[in-house]
Design brief:
By secondary structure, the chain is mainly alpha-helical. The protein has a single domain, classed as DhaL domain (Serine Threonine Protein Phosphatase 5, Tetratricopeptide repeat, Alpha Horseshoe), CATH 1.25.40.340. Helix content is about 70%, strand content about 0%.
Length: about 210
């Protein structure tokens, strides 16, 4: 499974549509245990990327990932901008030396997730976006040699289950960490939007 950067406009539209469709739910999650501005910041970043979509589609993957990362850092602001920026910049660096086939992308995505762990000083089980990203990355690595449709289903399932797992976790990072037991019972907003984005991308690939 090899994907061209010409698919980037389709990915961006699918992601933005999915975030917008679930904006009320995610905002309620973020207001419960966060700052309440996660969707606003994310949509601002996505709108900036949409304006660059034609340019991005003409780049190679390394350059595109790097530009996406720098754009998100400069337009989203806050912790999310830094984390998503780190994700894509690290993916861009790894893509310089890695083929963009299925196995290669598994390595590229893993490099991005590792960068998020380092930037956020967080790991699995701390009620963050990593509880979606790490399971999705593991599924991608462990099942890179199976049929594309089965691989995409496995990644979506891992992302969804990872997102749901945050509901019963205590938070150790960000504003939610100050809530203690009161953070239980709420899905992390960053985990939810990460899951929505991963699934939106997988759906576009599945239909192509």
């Amino acid at each position: 499974m090899t994907i061209s950067t010409q698919s980037i406009p389709l990915f961006l539209k699918a992601i933005k549509d999915e975030i917008a469709a679930n904006a009320d739910e995610v905002t309620a999650l973020d207001q419960a245990i966060g700052d309440g501005d996660h969707v606003t910041n994310l949509l601002r970043g996505l709108e900036a990327l949409e304006k660059q979509s034609a340019e991005l589609s003409e780049m190679d993957w390394s350059a595109a990932f790097m530009k996406i990362g720098m754009t998100l850092m400069s337009t989203m602001g806050g912790a999310s901008g830094s984390l998503y920026g780190s994700l894509f910049v690290a993916m861009g660096k790894e893509a310089q030396k890695t083929d963009m086939d299925t196995a290669g992308f598994a390595d590229i995505f893993d490099a991005g997730v590792t960068a998020v762990k380092t930037r956020g000083k967080a790991d699995l089980g701390e009620k963050t976006m990593l509880d979606t990203l790490i399971p999705a990355s593991r599924a991608l690595n462990e099942k890179a040699d199976i049929a594309a449709s089965d691989l995409l289903d496995a990644v979506k399932k891992a992302a969804y289950e990872g997102m749901l797992s945050t509901k019963d976790m205590l938070a150790t990072k960000g504003r939610a960490s100050f809530l203690g037991e009161r953070a239980r019972g709420h899905i992390d907003a960053g985990a939810r939007t990460s899951q929505l984005m991963i699934c939106a991308i997988a759906d576009v690939i599945e239909k192509s």
